[in-house]
Amino acid sequence: MTTLTYPAGAPSVSGTTLTVDRALKNPTFLAKRIVPPNTQFLSDLLFRPGVTDSGAVIYAEGSIDNIYPARGDAQQIEPGGAYPMVDVDDVADKVELSKKFGAGYYVYDEAKMRNNFDPIAKGNLKVRNALMRQDAARLLAAFDAKVPSVNSVGAWTTSKIWKTDLLQGLNSIKGLQLGFTPDTVVISPNTETTLLLLDDLQNWAPKENANLNPLYNPSLSGLLGLNWVVNEFASDDKAILLQTKVTGVNVTERALTVEVVREGTRGRNVVLADRFGVPVIDEPGSALVINGIGS
After folding, report:
1. What does pTM read for this prediction?
2. CA atoms lying within 13 Å on the CB side of residue 267
3. What is 12-51+102-291's CATH topology?
């Protein structure tokens, strides 16, 4: 005699194959979390926007020679005396080329018809996430290549250390007398956690306002008057100090674009996603890379 087991056996999963007892109700499907489409590219967040139709970007890299003579200076002139001649030639322009980054994937008809989720929507988000990771890596590499750097006075496990690094960094940038006012620091999630674990942050914060106390509201917002950007692709051993929308330009030739091409004889679609552009640091003096904060 056949016996109906109660409760029905739990489903089993092998890879993407789900085996379900006939008596079991339809299992709830929880889609994997993917970075939402409103999350900004790091280059969009930090740099001012720019466009190019040709793919080429010609720019002058800011330096002290842009606002002061390269050689010579103003001097006191006696009556009838000769004026000192100074060098006011412009610094040579530089060129960057827009680059294409992208990826593609296949979507078969059966996947579209039979799956519990939209495979193209899910695939698009995954490709976008990959492009976001690539964008951050390229931008962070540009900071390392173009921006002045200093070594930290020590690991940021002590309050005085991170304050010293940032305050000295702010002072050195302002000391260039180029009119820069850094307002943002980029750190990794691990660095954020290290700072939030410091007792001093809780002791300094007003106890009567939970929103301003990291014990109740774990955030670095407003510390030293800076905007803290925590990026998962940033290095645990570096902090980047900069002036948002001043340090560089995110030049876009074509924004993130997704194209779906039908391969009729194969019963599938080819999805191609790409982004044309290049981040350009044209004011390197407005930023500073602090190395060794995790050592």
Report:
1. 0.77
2. 6
3. hypothetical protein PF0899 fold (3.30.2320)
73 compared with 140, residue with greater pLDDT? 140
Compute the average pLDDT of residues 105-119.
Answer: 77
Q: Single out the residue of 108, 109, 65 nearest to residue 88, CA to CA.
A: 65
Max mean pLDDT range (69-73, 113-117, 139-143): 139-143
What is the SS3 assignment for 148? Answer: coil
Q: Are 228 and 73 in contact (CB under 8 A)?
A: no
Structure-token pair, residue 230: 């925590």
Q: Is 234 exposed, middle or buried (0-12, 13-18, 19+ CB in 10 A)?
A: buried
Amino acid at 274: D
SS3 content of the chain, % helix, strand, coil (to 5): 25, 25, 45
pLDDT number for residue 7: 52
Q: 131-140, pLDDT tens digit by residue?
A: 999 999 999 9
Structure tokens at 9: 């056996």
Residue type, 74: A
- Cβ count within 10 A of residue 73: 8
* pLDDT given at position 287: 97
Name the residue type at position 177. Q
Q: Residue 131 and residue 14: Cα distance in Å, rounded?
A: 30
Domain boundaries, the chain: 12-51+102-291
